[in-house]
Design goal:
Number of strands: 0
Helix content: over 70%
Order of helices and strands: HHHH
Distance between the termini: 39 Å
CATH topology: Four Helix Bundle (Hemerythrin (Met), subunit A)
Largest sheet: none
CATH class: Mainly Alpha
Bound molecules: fe (ii) ion
Length: 188
């Protein structure tokens, strides 16, 4: 059986693509039911990807010794906090409000909802690991700066994993959600 978690999934399962043939991705923006709220939601996804890229590249530059420790720690604290707070808020709102609204409008979404909610659990666990590791690096900047480099080293892999998870989750989420919004003229 194919594993559908974010570590193993390479595409959205065909069985969940029940409307995508009628609403191909390249026609979303021009569709008359494409509401500003959909644009805003996709825009939030875009900003999460950008922040993931920024954190990964800042970490890489620091580990290549192209950035001073102070500069790196300031960037890590700022962008790490911004991304993690915004993603947690976004997931909570989707799980509690957005997905139930979509499932009520179209019960075929329920299987996709299960997949997306388990993605959120997997993503949140990764974000918790990143938070613990980042906070340790930030504290060491004051307590023992020589240890920051070694503590930050595993973050390179964590942020690459985060980029991969976000890419898979956000792409599949849009493919599952946008056709339903357009089909049922929701939030227009
Ligand atoms: Fe989302
Ligand atoms: Fe999500």
């Amino acid at each position: 059986m194919t594993q559908l978690d974010l570590t193993h999934r390479t595409d959205l399962p065909e069985a969940l693509r029940f409307l995508s043939g009628d609403y191909p991705r390249d026609g979303w923006m021009g569709h008359p039911h494409f509401a500003r709220s959909i644009q805003n939601w996709l825009g939030a996804h875009h900003s999460f990807r950008q922040m993931g890229d920024v954190l990964a590249s800042k970490t890489q530059r620091y580990l290549n010794r192209d950035t001073e420790t102070d500069t790196y720690i300031n960037g890590l604290a700022y962008y790490g906090d911004l991304l993690i707070r915004n993603l947690h808020g976004h997931h909570t709102w989707e799980d509690r409000s957005y997905f139930p609204e979509l499932a009520a409008a179209d019960h075929r979404f329920e299987r996709g909802q299960d997949l997306l909610e388990s993605d959120h659990v997997e993503l949140d666990a990764l974000l918790d690991r990143i938070t613990i590791r980042s906070n340790r690096a930030i504290q060491l900047q004051t307590l023992d700066p020589k240890q920051v480099y070694e503590t930050a080293a595993p973050l390179e892999h964590d942020f690459e994993t985060l980029k991969k998870f976000l890419n898979r989750h956000l792409s599949d989420e849009a493919d599952l959600v946008v056709p339903i919004l357009l089909h049922h003229k929701m939030r227009a």
